[in-house]
Write a structure and sequence with these properties.
Layout (H helix, E strand, L loop, with lengths): L3 E3 L24 E6 L22 E5 L49 E10 L8 E7 L4 E6 L2 E6 L4 E7 L14 E7 L4 E6 L3 E6 L4 E8 L3 E6 L5 E6 L3 E6 L4 E6 L9 E7 L5 E4 L3 E2 L1 E7 L6 E7 L2 E7 L5 E6 L7 E8 L6 E7 L9 E10 L2 E11 L6 E6 L6 E6 L3 E10 L1 E2 L10 E6 L2 E6 L12 E4 L4 E6 L9 E5 L3 E6 L10 E3 L15 E8 L4 H6 L5 E7 L2 E7 L5 E9 L9 E12 L2 E6 L6 E5 L4 E4 L8 E3 L16 E7 L2 E7 L5 E3 L2 E4 L2 E7 L2 E6 L3 E6 L5 H9 L9 E3 L5 E5 L6 E4 L5 E4 L2 H13 L3 H11 L5 H4 L2 H6 L1 H8 L2 H10 L17 H4 L8 H16 L5 H9 L6 H12 L11 H11 L2 H10 L3 H10 L4 H12 L3 H11 L3 H8 L7 H11 L2 H5 L7 H16 L3 H11 ...
Parallel strand pairs: 39-43
Antiparallel strand pairs: 1-12, 2-3, 3-17, 4-30, 5-6, 6-7, 7-8, 9-10, 10-11, 11-12, 13-14, 14-15, 15-16, 17-18, 17-19, 20-21, 21-22, 22-23, 24-25, 25-26, 26-27, 28-29, 29-30, 31-32, 32-33, 33-34, 34-38, 35-36, 36-37, 37-39, 40-41, 41-42, 42-43, 44-45, 45-46, 46-47, 48-49, 49-50, 50-51, 52-53, ...
Helix pairs in contact: 3-4, 8-11, 10-11, 11-13, 12-13, 14-15, 17-18, 19-21, 21-22, 22-23, 23-24, 25-26, 26-27, 27-28, 28-29, 29-33, 29-34, 29-35, 29-37, 33-35, 34-35
């Protein structure tokens, strides 16, 4: 056993020089890599309770006896308090924005590619020796590099060496360069760096003081050092094939032998131990298992390699040792060897480090770094980086960043450090016209999988067609030219650009293979691209390509033979944007080269480049968020800051991984989405929950964390409207928002169509038709009179077909023939008819995004939209082909507001007798069968009977379910009748009584009694009077019956008019007497030639009825003129307060004595009555007003008590006496309404009585305040009506020298009016007028005030009582005072 000899802590020790027989390097081929299981959920630890501490995860060692391989460099575990893989540096957002959960939807990326975001280089680092391994200090953003001389710390951003620690001078490494550092780990808790040498020393180094401390050593040497992710445990693999586990303080816990006796030469195993060093599982022997080993950070799989007879695979083990899937490397057997496997922090990318095996003396050997991703159970090779195997560019080690998941660190032998940042992108064509095929390209090694979404939606990993390239592909770019958006250029790992064009070339390209379409007899209507040409990228410095295989990034195909590319300075934080063009001399050369024709240097690191194909604008984003505008067409190639509409430079607060250019409200803006789901328009953050977005035409589509897809029209939008729309995604916003599956992301939008392609988290694709896109496309089709396309889309997606007309009624009605010819289907036209309704769907279901002239000039022909469309379409169909569209013509009659079923039946009857048959014509039987689908058969039978055509009746009856025994006898009986009586019988059977009496009136006088009985029975007097001459006896009989009917209905005056018209004067006189129409009664009396006595008696009778109706003036006129009794007439006038008319009669008949005996006493009596009335009104008004103020005060106190003490209201509360009775009107009114529910069945008079009873003036009644308001209102209005009466009596009092009584009355009335005017504002206050308003909210509101407002709303009055809160009007312009009395 190899024991760990621990040195005393705190004492700097120098270990004894090992004996010569002790090897400096571990024995060959004994121990494979050792890997701790990474923490699957960063920041969670149920065991230790500390953030970053790992739970009791398993760890594993790969063992074998194969050929010796250098130990694979180990990525350092995350410090305990540092962010672990997948953690977010910007902080948490409600538990949704931290950890890998935010990227869960990105774990399956079959339609996305890895695109290089930026490259950081540090060349020719000044350090002694040869680099051997690498590690990171995440908190300091520095890199630790171990060499055969010691340790150095570099800052890759400032490109300087921060620290250098020599292990040779301290004797830990030999001076001849044969030493080796096998592991480096930054220990944040101990503020030190731990190193392990192959000779067996474990060293702690404090980089602040550069002090070294050897904490122990292993005599047999160390081949692997690995720290657990929580840095609580460290594991050493020794030269004697043992494993030593220690604590973070280097206290040995256990040492175990790696029992390798059962390992065969060609069969290796994977063994897994837990933290307690108990063996958990051992895999079955796997033939050809390689030495590379990597455990997925999510904890689900362990990756390794396996050599098979004809291939080399990457295989995956479960933690129980069982095999779980594999994929094959794109190399032949014994062509390469795998040096290492490396998972990135969020488990989405697997980096494979391969190296060519020697195949010949003159072969150029290379090493490769390949980045693999998986989606839909298919592994895609997304990036391939070739390096040389000799010289300075030989790869030494690589590792993924622990915080930034898509950042890869690479160290080369010539002290060259490279750092690559990738991000996910969807490579799609950017055209917006119908020629764009909605292509999406997916990189898969040396293949590009292209899916043409306009023609087919193919689930990945399948595709429409594949493009085969000679080398692995690193980038795909579609042409930015709007009319050539289907063309694409492909950059491969050999820095060649292959250009494929989609045109009408008949040539067959062998590099293009059909995928999920075509083959096996399928006829392909697809236009596939062909390889047009290839370019070789020419570097200014040949060494650049060897050191950095991804020298150019963000390559953009701007126009024919012109590309834009970005490169980064290896010595300073600067970027250069290059124009890559073809030399004119090489335009036709087969071996064309792209040269840098011009360049512009930019201060800062360019991380994105986007181009607007319409405006040809190019926007550059720097790592600091600054946005620059690049004038690539300008001769000077100027770069200047992108400015917002306010003229200020635009800068994203956070770097964005996806940028687009779009026109918003007429201004070109930059849109950006960060990897933290923050969405920016220029420098304004409009949302923080966006997972993806796409700009299509004038629309912006976004998916959100709330599982919605929103669509906004940018034509008339603004920042504020977009911000408001995105900030309230939970509110339904009509057509702009729709729900989608959790984690959906936008892939592309099919131009000039309604398809939106979404990718689900598990990798599958879904097509949705967003309502906003659908309606916008339908409106475009309708504007272009493309009715067929619009109809098919609406029918398939269930859009209401009324929109075809309602979008622009005038244009539709002018082009109905075009509509019919395009649809060209009877069934589809019938479907259009059946959906028609009077509603304007552009105002209800599908309001347009903006009000246009079309909507403003909308026609509305008397609200008969359906009738107008039916008539217009029917005329057009009859002119085009009435036989072909016969069923549609019938439908147009049936669908009218009043169905024209008789006309329809007549047309069907005409079809029955048509000979010979007409081409495209419909038989009568087919037409009738179709008609029965639209109309109920019984209704159709009745209408057929109403046509009086028995052949048609029989035809319909045979199609119905009626029993022939029912209808045949009835029809036979009808056929035997006289024609008019037959039709009368049919109409009476159909309950068409108006038509029935019309036919019966033609049957002769003998049928008049039957007709009169039917008229009386069905109240058809008015219709019957039109059927007979006014001088006929039948007319008089009907009129007398009509008058008697009106008399029974207590309609005496109309009855009298009917009697008078037909000459029944005695009946007319009685009717006029009953109605009180004294003028008409006297006119009829004159026609009856009454005697004077009879006329006087009639006058007295009329006067009595008029007095009952309080028409004293009319009664006096009748008595004076017809009964010749002027004295009684004067008395009636005095009773009715018609003083001036009474004086006229007194002086007309020269009876001044009546003035003293009757007139003056009546005037004085009336004055006393008015005074008493005013006293009563004033007292009542004052009493009600005082009580109203008390009630209101009690109610406010009760509400306040209820708010403070939360006392229950209504019937359950016994804590209030009088207060509780006025506390809540709503509670008590409910009780009243319940008790009065039986009244609802009574007459309206009783219901009004119940309403009045509800407003009781009894103190403490529930709605006493309303009753008081109602009573006060009535007092004011009744007093207002007294003005004319008071004015008239004042004149009489003055005339007869009753000045004192007149002034007394005038003063009392004036005081009463003034009292009421003063009290109006106090009674009908503004606050109580608004008592049913909305609650008062705002910055000045308190909790109590808001609750009081809600309580007031809760107890507000019903709607029908709202008029009580309107104050009565007092007309001050009415002149009632008599100035002579002042």
């Amino acid at each position: 056993m190899a024991h760990f000899r621990r040195a005393a802590r705190g004492v700097r020790t120098r270990p004894a020089v090992p004996a010569p027989q002790t090897p400096q390097t571990p024995p060959p081929g004994r121990v494979g890599p050792v890997r701790w299981r990474p923490t699957s959920k960063p920041g969670s630890d149920s065991r230790s309770g500390r953030r970053g501490r790992a739970a009791p995860h398993l760890w594993r060692a790969g063992l074998g006896s194969g050929p010796a391989t250098p130990p694979a460099p180990l990525p350092p575990a995350a410090p305990a308090v540092r962010r672990l893989p997948g953690a977010r540096p910007e902080g948490r957002r409600g538990g949704r924005e931290s950890g890998p959960g935010l990227r869960k939807a990105g774990r399956a990326a079959p339609v996305r590619n890895l695109k290089l975001l930026q490259t950081l280089e540090f060349r020719d680092i000044q350090a002694p020796g040869r680099p051997q391994c690498i590690s990171l200090r995440t908190e300091q953003s520095t890199v630790l590099i171990g060499s055969d001389h010691g340790l150095i710390e570099i800052d890759p951003v400032t490109r300087e060496v921060k620290n250098e620690v020599s292990l040779v001078s301290e004797g830990f490494l030999p001076e001849d360069g044969s030493g080796c550092i096998v592991g480096i780990q930054d220990l944040l808790d101990q503020e030190s760096v731990c190193m392990a040498t192959a000779s067996g020393d474990v060293i702690l180094c404090n980089l602040s003081t550069c002090q070294l401390e050897c904490v122990g050593s292993v005599a047999s040497g160390i081949s692997v050092m690995s720290w657990s992710p929580d840095q609580e445990l460290v594991l050493l693999a020794t030269g004697q094939q043992t494993l030593i586990m220690m604590t973070k303080d280097f206290e040995p816990i256990m040492e175990q032998q790696i029992h390798q006796d059962d390992f065969g030469e060609r069969a290796r195993k994977v063994r897994v131990w837990n933290r307690e060093f108990a063996l958990q599982s051992t895999s079955e022997p796997v033939a050809g298992l390689g030495p590379a080993l990597a455990w997925k950070p999510s904890g689900s799989l362990i990756a390794s390699t396996q050599e098979k007879p004809n291939q080399q695979d990457i295989v995956f083990f479960e933690k129980n040792g069982l095999l779980h899937g594999h994929f094959t490397l794109p190399f032949l057997k014994d062509e390469v060897k795998v040096n290492g496997l490396f998972w990135n922090a969020d488990s989405t990318v697997l980096a494979v480090w391969l190296e060519d095996l020697q195949r010949g003396e003159n072969c150029t050997l290379k090493t490769y770094v390949q980045l693999w991703t998986v989606g839909n159970y298919h592994w895609y090779l997304k990036q391939s980086l070739p390096f040389s195997t000799c010289g300075k560019s030989k790869l030494v080690c690589l590792m993924w960043d622990l915080v930034t998941p898509y950042r890869l660190h690479i160290l080369c032998q010539g002290w060259h450090y490279l750092c690559y940042d990738w991000h996910w992108t969807t490579d799609r064509s950017s055209g917006d016209n119908s020629s764009d095929m909605a292509n999406v390209a997916v990189i898969d090694g040396n293949k590009v999988l292209v899916t043409v979404f306009q023609q087919s939606v193919v689930p990945p990993p399948m595709c429409t067609y594949r493009l085969l390239l000679p080398h692995p592909v690193n980038q795909v770019m579609f042409s930015a030219h709007p009319k050539k958006s289907n063309d694409l250029a492909i950059l491969d790992a050999s820095n060649q650009i292959s250009v494929y064009k989609c045109d009408d070339s008949p040539s067959v390209d062998l590099t293009v293979k059909l995928g999920a379409v075509g083959g096996n007899g399928f006829k392909v209507s697809l236009r596939t691209p062909h390889l047009e040409k290839r370019y070789k990228l020419q570097f200014e410095n040949g060494e650049d390509q060897e050191i950095n295989p991804l020298k150019f990034s963000l390559i953009t195909w701007i126009q024919e033979d012109v590309f834009l590319a970005v490169s980064y300075s290896p010595s300073s934080p600067q970027s250069a944007i290059h124009h890559l063009t073809v030399a004119p001399s090489e335009a036709d050369d087969e071996h064309r080269q792209l040269h840098i024709s011009s360049s512009v240097t930019v201060d800062g690191v360019i991380i994105s480049l986007c181009c607007n194909s319409k405006t040809k604008s190019v926007a550059l984003q720097l790592a600091g968020g600054q946005i620059l505008k690049y004038f690539w067409e300008s001769p000077s190639l100027a770069v200047e800051p992108w400015k917002n509409p306010g003229g200020f430079p635009v800068r994203f607060p956070y770097p964005c991984t996806q940028t687009e250019l779009a026109m918003i409200g007429g201004e070109e803006c930059v849109l950006g989405l960060s990897d933290r789901c923050r969405f920016f328009i220029n420098d304004t953050e409009v949302a923080s929950n966006i997972t993806s977005f796409a700009v299509y035409d004038e629309f912006l589509l976004l998916t959100t964390h709330s599982h919605t897809c929103q669509c906004f029209c940018l034509r008339d939008a603004s920042f504020n409207t977009l911000h408001a729309g995105l900030s309230s995604s939970h509110v339904s916003k009509g057509e702009s928002l729709r729900k989608v599956e959790r984690g959906s992301r936008i892939v592309t939008v099919v131009p000039q169509d309604t398809k939106l392609i979404l990718q689900m988290p598990r990798g599958n694709l879904e097509v949705v038709h967003h309502r906003a896109l659908v309606l916008a496309q339908i409106r475009k089709w309708l504007d272009k009179l493309m009715f067929k396309e619009a109809f098919e889309c609406m029918r398939k997606l269930r859009i209401n077909l009324n929109l075809i007309h309602d979008h622009n009624p005038k244009v539709f009605l002018e082009n109905v023939e075009t509509f019919i010819r395009q649809i060209d289907s009877v069934n589809h036209i019938n479907l259009f008819f059946t959906e028609l309704k009077e509603e304007d769907v552009t105002k209800t279901m599908y309001p347009p995004p903006v009000t246009s002239a079309v909507q403003l000039s909308r026609e509305d022909p008397d609200g008969k939209k359906v009738d107008l469309i039916c008539d217009t379409l029917r005329v057009a169909m009859e002119s085009i082909n009435p036989h072909k569209y016969c069923l549609s013509i019938l439908t147009s009659h049936v669908k009218k507001t009043t169905p024209e079923l008789e006309i329809v039946l007549q047309k069907v009857h005409e079809l029955q007798g048509r000979t010979p048959p007409v081409p495209d014509a419909v038989s009568a039987e087919e037409a009738l069968k179709y008609l029965l689908l639209l109309v109920d058969v019984n209704e159709l039978y009745d209408h057929s009977l109403g046509t009086y055509d028995f052949d048609l009746v029989l035809m319909v009856a045979e199609k119905s379910q009626k029993d022939p025994k029912e209808y045949l006898p009835f029809l036979n009986t009808l056929k035997k009748m006289e024609t008019n009586y037959q039709r009368f019988t049919i109409d009476k059977y159909l309950k068409r009584y108006e038509k029935a009496i019309g036919h019966l009136s033609k049957c002769g006088p003998e049928y008049f009694s039957e007709c009169l009985n039917l008229v009386k029975d069905k109240n058809l007097y008015k219709e019957a009077l039109k059927l007979y001459p006014s001088d006929s006896q039948q007319y008089k009989d009907i009129s007398i019956a009509y008058g008697e009917h009106l008399t029974q209905e207590h309609l005496y005056e109309p009855a009298g008019l009917v009697f008078a018209r037909c000459g029944a004067h005695e009946k007319a006189l009685n009717a006029f007497l009953a109605s009180g129409s004294w003028q008409q009664a006297l006119c009829v009396a004159a026609q009856l030639n009454l005697t004077k006595d009879q006329l006087a008696d009639l006058g007295r009778t009329l006067a009595g009825k008029l007095v009952e109706q309080r028409k004293h003036g009319d009664a006096a006129t009748v008595l004076e003129q017809y009964a010749k009794d002027y004295e009684e007439a004067v008395l009636l006038l005095l009773e009715g307060a018609a003083w001036e008319e009474a004086l006229r009669l007194v002086y007309k008949y020269n009876r001044p004595d009546i003035i003293e005996t009757n007139v003056k006493p009546s005037i004085l009596e009336a004055q006393k009555n008015y005074m008493a009335l005013l006293d009563s009104q004033t007292a009542t008004f004052s009493r009600h007003k005082k009580r109203l103020l008390v009630v209101r005060e009690l109610k406010e106190q009760a509400q306040q008590v209820n708010l403070d003490d939360e006392v229950p209201q209504g019937q359950e509360s016994d804590l209030f006496s009088e207060t509780s009775s006025v506390l809540s009107g709503s509670d008590m009114s409910g009780k009243y309404s319940h008790s009065n529910s039986r009244i609802s069945a009574r007459s309206s008079k009783n219901r009004r009585k119940a309403e009045r009873k509800k407003h009781s003036l009894k103190e403490g009644s529930p709605l006493e305040d309303l009753a008081l308001l109602e009573a006060l209102n009535e007092i004011v209005q009744s007093t207002e009506k007294l003005k004319d009466e008071v004015h008239n009596i004042l004149k009489m009092l003055f005339l007869f020298e009753f000045d004192e009584q007149g002034r007394e009355l005038q003063k009392a009335f004036e005081d009463t009016l003034q009292l009421m005017e003063r009290s109006l504002p106090e009674i009908w206050t503004l606050t109580h007028q608004q008592n049913s308003a909305t609650p008062v909210l705002g910055p000045n509101s308190t909790a109590n005030s808001i609750m009081a407002s809600y309580q007031q709303q809760k107890t507000s009055v019903p709607v029908h009582d709202a008029e009580l809160f309107i104050p009565p009007k007092i007309n001050k312009r009415t002149q009632w005072k008599l100035s002579l009395l002042e």
